């Protein structure tokens, strides 16, 4: 007897697509830069990933309606702040439209002067390398130029439209699988 194929539908709306994509758990970043008057700007971004080790590249996808993206494009550089689970309020602030997102946020300048948000797990200063079309988003590839220090804290996670955090103990994949991960550093410290 032929195996029964799993149920699937090719008739779905954007809400159902969101629900399906929401099963994929991500971290949360805030991507920041300075505008032409050196005012800090930024937005919350989950569509971020490590793309390449050699050269060191990252990828993120801003909506075409994002007010921050044209500012990043003009400046040509940005900082990816990887949020810790102490920064849920930071994610909420940068994930909603607002003129004055930085009014209650403490930050320090990166080597290029761009905003590094305090208490982030780590940060990466990048330059824009290429921009591609991605439907209602842009696909931005950036080159990592400066790495910030790493805090020993837990990450902020986003899953099914809500926040959560990791709990110990965690399960580590088999050694041979790890070798292929961009985000594994090869030592005994999996950060
Ligand atoms: C957890 C979280 C993840 C988000 N991920 C993205 C993303 O990957 N790309 C994006 O364009 N917007 C994302 N957003 C929404 C933007 O942060 C939001 O639309 C923000 O208001 C955009 O600000 P801006 O218009 O000042 O750039 C996310 C929001 C939250 C809360």
TrEMBL record:
UniProt KW Coiled coil keyword: no
Ranges where the Flavin reductase like domain occurs: 21-165
Any one GO molecular function term: FMN binding
Keywords assigned by UniProt, alphabetized: Oxidoreductase
Keyword Oxidoreductase: yes
SUPFAM superfamilies tied to this protein: FMN-binding split barrel (SSF50475)
Pfam families linked to this entry: Flavin_Reduct
Family in the record: Belongs to the non-flavoprotein flavin reductase family.
NCBIfam families in UniProt: monooxsub_HsaB
PANTHER family given in the database record: FLAVIN REDUCTASE, FLAVIN-DEPENDENT MONOOXYGENASE, REDUCTASE SUBUNIT HSAB
Name this protein carries in UniProt: Putative oxidoreductase
Species this chain originates from: Gordonia malaquae NBRC 108250
């Amino acid at each position: 007897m032929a195996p029964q194929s799993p149920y699937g539908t090719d008739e779905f709306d954007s809400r159902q697509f969101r629900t399906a994509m929401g099963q994929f758990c991500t971290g949360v970043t805030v991507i920041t830069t300075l505008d032409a008057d050196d005012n800090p700007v930024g937005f919350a971004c989950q569509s971020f990933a490590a793309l390449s080790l050699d050269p060191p590249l990252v990828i993120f996808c801003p909506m075409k309606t994002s007010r921050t993206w044209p500012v990043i494009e003009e400046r040509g550089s940005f900082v990816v702040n990887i949020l810790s689970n102490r920064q849920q309020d930071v994610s909420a602030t940068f994930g909603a439209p607002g003129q004055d997102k930085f009014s209650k946020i403490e930050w320090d300048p990166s080597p290029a002067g761009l905003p590094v948000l305090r208490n982030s797990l780590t940060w990466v200063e990048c330059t824009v390398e290429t921009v591609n079309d991605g439907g209602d988003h842009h696909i931005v590839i950036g080159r990592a130029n400066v790495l910030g220090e790493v805090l020993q804290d837990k990450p902020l996670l986003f899953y099914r439209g809500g926040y959560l955090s990791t709990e110990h103990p965690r399960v580590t994949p088999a050694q041979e699988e790890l070798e292929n991960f961009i985000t594994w550093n090869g030592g005994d410290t999996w950060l």
